[in-house]
What we know:
Layout: H1 4-8, H2 16-30, H3 40-55, H4 57-73, H5 75-90
Helix pairs in contact: 2-3, 3-4, 4-5
Amino acid sequence: MTDHYAALGLGSDASLADIKKAFRQKASLHHPDKNDAADAAERFRAAQQAYEVLSDPVQRQAYDDNRRRNLLDDPLETAQQIWQSYFKNILPP
């Protein structure tokens, strides 16, 4: 499961304004026309997907419910995915 909050560098309590601001920053940073990194397009798409889900109240509620369920069903796997996503974003390739 993709962590949309991590893709935007936000916590799950982020407001819509925080989500919009984080998306604009990530989109500007990772836009393939402005960033020559090999994974720029992938990170840009991840930010777009995260914004699409988190900016829509219905999709966000469904995502949050599923996210909570996954944390309860398999917390070890979820924790590993979150940490991998976190380190992927902060450590250079």
